[in-house]
Each structure stands twice: as C-alpha cells, then as structure tokens.
C-alpha cells in the first residue's frame, strides 16, 4: 500500500502500446473529474454541517469530521496516507461503538481528551507507515503494512461489531432497552452508519490491496491492465459515498444536511435529542 507499489504495474499498462483505447481513457478521465467534484463538494457540505450545527460536535462525530478530511485528502493527494488514516479512524469508530453499547461502564469514563488521543493515534500510525519507504523500505514492508493497516483493523472492527450486535440482540430479547440511560435510537443510527461505512471501505480498498500484493510478491507485468487501473479507481470511490451514507443512515445528519440545502436556520432544524446522552454524544467543549 506504499505510494510506489503500483508504479511498475501502471508502467506495464502504458509502456510501448496502451492497453486502452482513447475512448476508455476519456471514460476514466470523466470518472475522475466527476468523482472529484462530488467528493470535494459533498465532504465540504459535511464539514459545513458541523460548523453550523454545534449540537453535532460530539466526541463520536469528531471522528466523522476527521474522516471527511481524509476523504478530501484521498482524492486531492497522498492517497495512501489518507487511506491509512481512514481505516484507523474507522477502527476508532468501532471501538467507540463497542465501549458505548457493550461496555458503558468504561464508555462513560471516556473524555474529550480520550477521543483526541485515539484520533491522534490513527493519524500518527498513518504518518509512520506512509513515510517508511522514504527512509528505506524492507522486503516484507508491503505485507506488514497490509497486516497492520488492513487485517488487524478489520479484525478489531469485526470483534467490536459482533459484540455490539450480540449486546443489542440480548437487550431486545430482555425488553430492557427503555430502561437504559441511552438515547438508543441515536446510538443505533450511528452504529448502522458505521457498519455500512466499513463494509463500503472494504469493498473499495480490497482490490487495491490485492494489486499491491501482486505487484510486490508476484510479477507486476502479469497484472491485467484493467485491474491495475480499476483498483485505484475503486479506492478513490471511498471518498464520495460516505456523505451519502451519512444522509441515508443517520436521521440527525439527514435533517441537518437537508436543512442546510434548504437554507433553513438552526432554530428550524430539530436535531437535538430529548433523552440523556452518553459520553460519546455529549457536545465537545468549544
């Protein structure tokens, strides 16, 4: 997943005679331009939403704000760095969901500083692994990066969301949801949104990871030209579907974004919860 991993495969596509027709090149260019416009505009709308609605600036949503920045960064430049940061932040979201729903005794003790440190850890991890090739990579670099920034995070997410699912099922069977000191509807919205984001991220980045492994441990010249081109395009698709997921899966985000697009004032857009919130839902200090 290093920035140069696909160089050799890309060269094999374009050396001597291009494997694509001019029409296919135009289609790719049109896709990149369209996706770029959608990605930048939609993620800017998400950031403006958090600027306008102070109620949405919670500890959990601070992670979403950082994800919006990574989405913009993935498309603009430093694809690998922001991709690593994205999966790190998605892992932090999974941990937040696990602690909020499965271990509320610990979740209630988390502070703004706790979330800040978790977010910083995701960024520092991305900085470390994306700069390693600069100081000299090692033979197993690609495998290590994929293990640390793909396999392990996905394993953590699977563990967290499996336990979240089991906990929710247990609460429903015991009919004790109403007795919990949690705005359960909001928590379920955030959890469903997070799961969809991870599934889509996996779908977007898996082809790219496969091509990286192939280029590093196999013969890059044998990588099919369409696969070498489509894999990075799939990865870039992760930049514009997150805002769509926010609107579809989260009622508060949907009301806020629709209100913004309709130029409604904060007073006319009802996004506040009427129930006591957990730590991850408490507004951050200005």
The number of helices is 10
CATH class descriptor name:
Mainly Alpha
**DSSP strand (E) fraction?**
under 5%
State the domain count: 1
Helix/strand-derived category reads mainly alpha
Shape: globular
Report the order of strands and helices.
HHHHHHHHHH
Domain G-protein coupled receptors family 1 profile: 42-72, 74-246
InterPro entries: GPCR_opsins, GPCR_Rhodpsn, GPCR_Rhodpsn_7TM, Peropsin, Retinal_BS
Membrane topology: Multi-pass membrane protein
Main location: membrane
Q: Tags for this entry?
A:
286 residues, mainly alpha, Rhopdopsin 7-helix transmembrane proteins, 0% strand, globular, disordered N terminus, transmembrane helix, G-protein coupled receptors family 1 profile domain-containing protein, Peropsin, glycoprotein
Architecture blueprint of SSEs:
Elements: H1 7-14, H2 22-52, H3 59-76, H4 79-101, H5 104-107, H6 112-135, H7 141-174, H8 184-217, H9 225-249, H10 251-261
How would you summarize what this structure contains?
The chain crosses the membrane at residues 28-51, 81-100, 112-132, 138-162, 195-217, 229-249. With 286 residues, this protein is mainly alpha-helical.
Structure description:
The protein is mostly helical and 286 residues long. It has a single domain (7-280), classed as Rhopdopsin 7-helix transmembrane proteins (Up-down Bundle), CATH 1.20.1070.10. Helices cover 74% and strands 0% of the residues. It has helices at residues 7-14, 22-52, 59-76, 79-101, 104-107, 112-135, 141-174, 184-217, 225-249, 251-261. The protein starts with 6 loop residues before the first helix and ends in a 25-residue tail after the last helix.
